[in-house]
Design a protein that fits this description.
By secondary structure, this protein is of the alpha+beta class. About 25% of the residues lie in helices and about 25% in strands. Helix 1 packs parallel to helix 3, helix 1 packs parallel to helix 7 and helix 7 crosses helix 8. The longest helix is centred in the middle third of the chain and has 21 residues.
């Protein structure tokens, strides 16, 4: 079969903060050296920022380094003015000292999508080519097992859960170096990790699911720049989770809840936990009289330093959250993702400048990370997140010890575990009684998905694959009471009864690309593929 091809020096998969920072840095280095480097960025969202979701508070360290003269032109919505931390019981909120890693002096509450739109404009001004609406669905290799680029197009599953001939190869984009910046749990990243054994010496990655709403609140309740984090209720003390409440501009407040995907109870619903959280008197008083205007959800890496894979492979590298550079105790990953992209760009430029750069491994990137503040920052907090596997109170005690006593220099490193292995059998777990939505403070999943502006073409094949369809009944339903029907924040999965008995129905048109199913399925039976380019949520202003 003949494919249309395009050739570049560097292809970057993903127009998030890591990918765009890498592109900008590459062009800056080329300009300074009076060299020509062609850079192409592929983005599966309909436009840059459409699939980007984060809290988000920006630590501007990397932005200042990348754009020293113009960083203040970025959409830095609201400077943080107040930092608060609370422990919640069912009826009360107890103010505690804000943990040191969570201090936000000099930081900004932002929309990460808007920041990416700004960075994309900077990249294009420097000569980068950006193609939104094009999903990279396949890695291309040569006979020497080197990555030589990616293919665009779509991969689909038909109603019988079989791969279809609908795969449209689109184009083959060839490059001397390919930087993969897909974000958390990227499909190409996962395949590259397996093919090149990039995780062999790393702990399993562990994840959280972050669910976010934006509310318009009354003027007298709005305090621009106010930042609140909470732990405790509605989570039980055995389950890792917490909330954020960020006061942006224009009477907007971002309400978010993160649940660690290592939770054990298959009856738990992260979406329902956020809805229940909003009924707490402390939160209810803020939201009553307001209006919910946006909704979204996204998985995030929580493994930290010990879960970082080998970063490079022949012909490219993993950058940003494709590798897992989130600083969990800080609850920040934008500055670390940007820094990883910038360091990869430096290594990439050196390879292209000193040699042909043709598919060689960017070992300098790994060395640059090791010698930078990036690894030092992640190493210092490596034991905080895994300490919570012993429960909330032991986790808080361990976090205080690591932060204030050893300063991250404990002579041990706690280990992470794979999230899909943690579920109890449904019959051995306590059912959770979630109240029905009142459509004032609390809502159902379908009305929430509507606010995410999610759209997939009706005639495109399903992008969610079951490796063995019968496992959805024999294992997930019979042993775990179909946990996918609860952990999915978009109502994609539901058990329906027909004349042949129960079956799993997949409502792929609802999918908001959070990747939770790909992570949490107990038998790793669900595989998330990128749908046709441009499909999915449109997180405008999120």
């Amino acid at each position: 079969m003949e494919y249309e091809t395009m050739e570049f020096d560097v292809i970057i998969v993903g127009a998030g903060p890591a990918g765009l920072s890498a592109a900008i840095k590459l062009k800056q280095l080329a300009l300074a050296a009076e060299k020509e480097i062609s850079v192409c960025i592929l983005e599966k969202g309909a436009q840059v920022g459409a699939h980007i979701l984060s809290g988000a508070i920006l630590e501007p360290r990397s932005l200042k380094e990348l754009l020293p003269e113009t960083w203040q032109d970025a959409p830095l919505d609201t400077p943080v003015s107040n930092d608060l931390f609370y422990f919640l019981t069912q009826k009360h909120a107890y103010k505690l000292p804000t943990p040191k890693p969570m201090h936000n002096e000099g930081n900004y509450i932002i929309s990460l999508g808007e920041l990416c739109t700004f960075l994309a404009a900077q990249a294009e001004a420097l000569g980068c080519e950006i193609y939104p609406g094009f999903a990279a669905v396949k890695v291309l290799y040569n006979d020497q097992n080197q990555v030589v680029g990616v293919a665009t197009g779509s991969v689909g599953i038909n109603k019988d859960n079989e791969k279809t001939d609908h795969y449209q190869p689109g184009m083959h984009l060839l490059a001397k170096q390919t930087l993969v910046a897909e974000g958390c749990r990227g499909q190409l990243s996962q395949k590259l990790m397996v093919r090149y054994h990039l995780r062999d010496k790393a702990n399993p990655q562990t994840y959280g699911l972050g669910i976010k709403e934006i509310w318009q609140v009354s003027a007298e309740k709005h305090e621009p720049g106010k930042v609140i984090h909470t732990v405790g209720w509605p989570m039980n003390h055995a389950t890792y989770g917490g909330s954020f409440i960020y006061h942006l501009s224009k009477q907007r407040v971002a309400i978010g809840f993160v649940v660690g995907l290592d939770y054990k109870n298959p009856w738990l619903s992260p979406f329902a936990e956020l809805q229940r959280f909003k009924t707490h008197p402390f939160i209810r008083s803020l939201l009553m009289g307001g209006e919910r205007i946006s909704y979204g959800a996204r998985a995030l890496n929580e493994g930290g330093w010990q879960s970082l894979p080998k970063l490079t492979f022949p012909g490219g590298a993993l950058i940003g959250d494709a590798a897992g550079f989130l600083n969990v105790p800080k609850i920040k990953g934008i500055h670390t993702s940007m820094q990883s992209g910038m360091l990869a760009a430096e290594a990439c430029f050196e390879a292209l400048h000193e040699t042909s750069g043709l598919q060689q491994e960017l070992t300098n990137y790994t060395e640059k990370v090791k010698n930078s503040w990036l690894e030092k920052e992640l190493y210092a907090v490596r034991n905080i997140r895994p300490g919570f596997k012993y429960g909330l109170i032991p986790g808080l005690i361990n976090a205080a010890f690591e932060t204030y006593i050893t300063n991250g220099h404990s002579p041990w490193t706690l280990q992470n575990h794979a999230d899909h292995r943690t579920l109890k059998l449904a019959k051995k777990a306590k059912k959770i009684d979630y109240p029905k939505p009142d459509n004032v403070l609390t809502f159902d999943r379908l009305s929430s998905v509507f606010l995410s502006n999610t759209f997939h073409e009706e005639d495109q094949p399903c992008h969610l694959e079951l490796k063995k369809p019968q496992l959805a009944i024999d294992t997930n339903l019979k042993k775990y009471a179909s946990p996918e029907s609860r952990y999915c924040p978009a109502g994609v999965y539901e058990i329906v009864e027909d004349e042949n008995g129960p079956r799993l129905q997949i409502n792929a048109q609802n999918c908001i690309h959070c990747k939770t199913c790909d992570i949490k399925d107990p038998r790793q039976n669900i595989v998330w593929h990128a749908p046709e380019g441009g499909g999915g949520p449109n997180y405008s202003g999120m």
